[in-house]
Known about the structure:
The chain is mainly alpha-helical.
Amino acid sequence: MVSNFESNFESNLESNLEPNLESNLESNLESNLESNVESNLESN
């Protein structure tokens, strides 16, 4: 019973959380990069 639960939990974690984390990380990095470039251009 426990191993089945653990297995399902791990599987759900991998299929749901990981892609979301990856996607959020990418979009945050892009957004921060754009923002930093813009503010550096403005200040120079």
